Each structure stands twice: as C-alpha cells, then as structure tokens.
Batch of 2 targets.
Target 1
Amino acid sequence: MLLAIDCGNTNVVFSLFDGEANKGEWRIETKHGRTADEYAAWFSHLLTLDNRTLSDVTDVIIASVVPVITDHLRRLSTRHLSCEPMIVGEAGVALGVTVDIDMPSQVGADRLVNAHAASMMAELPAIILDFGTATTFDLIKKGNIYAGGVIAPGIHLSASALSAAAARLPEIDIVPFGADLPVIGRDTKAAMRSGIFWGYVAMIEGVITRISNQEGASLSVIATGGLAHLFAPHIPQIVMVDDQLTMRGLVHIHALNKG
C-alpha cells in the first residue's frame, strides 16, 4: 500500500492508500525536533489499532514545506518502511504540471500537488483556494500550467495575532457562522467575529474577482483545507470543496511516476 505524507506548517498528515481507496488517515502536530524513530513508533502504534503493521507499506510519497522535517520523513521511509520515498519537488519526480513563474523553486510542494489534482478534477482555468496556515490562491491555466498565486495570513493566524497584540482583545473561536451574523458588532467579541468572518469573506471574494478580471475569464474555484466548509456557503464563487485534494494529488503523482 501507498503511504502519502503531507507535511505542512501546522500538521503532518499520513494517509494510507490501496489504489485510490483511502484506508486510513492520521495527523500529528508539526514539530521540528521529532525524529524518524519517534514518527515510526507513533505510526506503528496507530497502525496496530487498525490491525496493520509498518510492513503493509510498500511505497511512500512525501510533499513537505518544512525542509528539516522532510529529512526525518525520508529516514522514516528508508529505515523503518524499507523503501526510498518519492519526494515532490526533487529532480526526477514528474508533476504533470508546468510551473510558469519567475522562481519555480519557491513554490510550496503542497501547492504543486494541489495544482496537479485540480487539473484532473476541474475545468481550467481554475483557482485553488486553500484554507491552511496561510490562505492561498493558486491560478491553474489551461494546459496544466501553474501560473502563480496569492498568499495571505491564515484565518487562525490572524485571529491569534489580533488577540496577542492587543491587551484588551480576547481570543475568539473559529466556528460555523450563518448569513445572519451581524456585520456590526455590538460588543468586542461580536466586532472581532465580524472582522474575522466577514472580513475574510470579503477579502476572498475580492481577490477572486481581481484574478478573474486580470485573466479576462470566469474561473472555477476549488476550496480545500480545514476551514473550507465553514466559508464556502458564504462565497458563491466556490464551486467545489475537497478536503482530500492534496492527498488525491499525491496518489495521482505517484501513479504518474510509476507509469
């Protein structure tokens, strides 16, 4: 079975696939000091609960935006899983996407994987909207061309920074909200909720509109990431929400390279 690993700035996600069927998914907080042996002990224990062992893993593919952790995950694969991992972004790993920006090496592996997945799922051109540690917008043009994007602070990051920087502003939870949430808050928490929720809705709608105007085309918008389901009902441009976009992309990239 294929182990697909997506290492982001907040969590490292392990997904086990039999073909394209997801047989299990586990996540652990991103922590720079965690070693390959610690990952192996943690993952082995979780597999045991699912009546599986490390020996069930025959292939590994990794997308990582944290280089120091990439090295630990590589050692996990070679030392504990007895296979050489396929690492997105390394020479020889075909992505099925042409990167057309000034400095291709700066594009995060997860964004390229998402671009590959979107090119197989949606009519192009399209925008991938990812609600992660950062809120990112990526433009995929016809011909499977990654043409660049927009990076904004993530919603959790913005909410935490707001309360941390102002002594009298409390922390607020990011929870589902309805269309009846008032724009004008009548107390501090209500005003902060409006700023976070409607502020991000307006920002996202505005950026999508500006990208569409710049491209002179109507663009499909695919949303992914943990908060996509909360915000999608309030953003009409979003035509699809797919929490598994990155994992689908990893599975397809692995298949592409295996022929």
Target 2
Amino acid sequence: MKLGMDIYTVRSKGWDAFQLLDYSKKIGLDLVHFSDLNPFESLEDEYLDRVRAHADRLGLAIEVGMLSICESATIFDRSEGSAVEQVTKMLHVADKLRSPILRCVQGSSADRQTELPFEGHIENTIATCRAVRSMCMDLGIKLALENHAGDFHGSELADLIVAAGPEYVGACIDAGNPLWAGESPFVTLEALAPYIATSHVRDTAVWPHPTGASVQWVAMGDGNIGINDWAARFIELCPNVPFSLEIITSAPPRVLDYLKPEADYWKMYPDTPAREFARFEALVRNGQPYIRPCLTVGRDAPPEYLPAIAAQQTIDLERSIQFCKETLGIGES
C-alpha cells in the first residue's frame, strides 16, 4: 500500500512542487497529493510535464486536488470561474500529472446552517459532477469527494456518490473530519468503503467537555480513537487505495456542544442515527485530554510564529511516517 502525504501537512514551509517532491522522496514516501496549486509556478503543459518527469525520476506517484465544486457552498471561490470551469481546468492538470483522481469537496459544516437547505447544496454538487462526467470518463479520472470540515456524515456522502454515479465519482475519506461532525471514523469508513478512491489520514484525541466533547487532531499514534484498528480495517477494505497523511497538529481543540439545549450541533446534524452517535460517544467517554506539548494557533497567527509552526509540521509528519511504517506496516519505499 502506497504511503503518501497531502501537501497541506507542510503548508508553512512555502516549498514549490519540486521541493515538495524531493522532500517526500527523502522521508520515504511513495505519493504526493497536491491538494492546491500554490506550489506550481505555472499550469502550462511544459511546466506540468517537468513536474511529472521529476516525480518519475524519484519514483513518486502524484495525486491532484482542489476545494469546493459546489457554487452555493460558503467556501466556493467564484473568482476562479464557475464550478464546471474550475473542475475542467483541474482535470487537465490531473491528466498531465497522471493523477487517477481529482480530490474535491462540497463545502464545510457552515453549509448546514445556510438559508439554502443542505440538500440544495448536495443537488448543486451533483449537478457539477454530472456536467463533467464525460470528461472524467474519457480521461479515466475519478472525482474523489472528501468528507470535509464537518460537511458530511459518511452515509450522506455515500448517498451523493451513488446519486451522481460511482463509475466516475468516489470518496476521499478523511479520518480526522468525522470527529468534527460527531461521527466515529469507523462508521465513516464502513459507509464509504465501496467508493473510496484516496485518503487523508491523521489521528485524533477526543475527551469529555462540559457541553459535549473536545476534539483535537494529532500526529499518528498520539490519539485515542483506535487509529491502529482503523488502519487495519482500511487495509482490509481498501487494499489498493493510497494511505496519505494529512497531519494537522496546530489546530486548537474543537468543542462539540451536543449536551446544550438547542445546541448548534443538533441544528446541523438533526437526523444523526442514535446507534451511530453512540459509537462516537463511546470514544469520547473513554478519552483523555491531549497533553503532549504542541503549538496551537489560529489562522491569524502572528508571522513570528511561522518558523515554529513549520518546524512542528515536518517533525509531526516524520513521526507519523515512522509510526505508519513501523507500527502499521504501511508503505512501499
């Protein structure tokens, strides 16, 4: 099974595409997932060909990603054109870099609180997918929709994939995002397994909070959600899918307020099955606060923090790679 990383893991380093490829080879990865275009100096074919040739020399696979493909989503970037125009552009990039998937997202948990019902966002996402179906089929590239920032529970994303067409739409399963939505990552994995095309993996610590639960993303092996068992189940269900790390350790704990009357949580997820929520609650009740020293900052962190954040990103990534290879037995290099 290929071991990879999403470049968001080392976002503060400011590396270009070639530097990211060189670093990935140095630390023993098999795949680099370019989840945004910031490292690319150009999208001209000649430049993309050089990136692909460099990856070939290093023996690295490449995956390509983007953000929202839903024009009604709160995070959709209209400055880059329509959803179909953006996906079309990114499918060309994916084709030039020989990425078998194009990772994309619908939005975030904020879309569950908009004037437009969440079902409307789903319909708009499906419409974008259908508009590019022929291009995906011709290129042999699958759209890999991620359960992103609390937007989807696993079964909801699975339903979207089935409605759009699993022959060209699959899932990018994120192991950390389910906890933001009050879902056990085991529930998410079981729901999405038939459709998973790629992955974003990190560990998580959860523990009780007076209003519900605290959730903090951590390096592999530092959490308490049973990541060893989750990885074993992933290998069993998805043996040919890359295991790509998206390690995020600088985000502060997120509080889910599901014990408060009229809580925002239940406004966002009013139809959560009790049996599935109980599996999340079991993780919470058995959890302990994360106390390993780490730097947590908001998005508006002072620039003086950047060197320390960048250092933490590479340290925690490399610790996670070692854990994956030595404890989980994942990786081809």
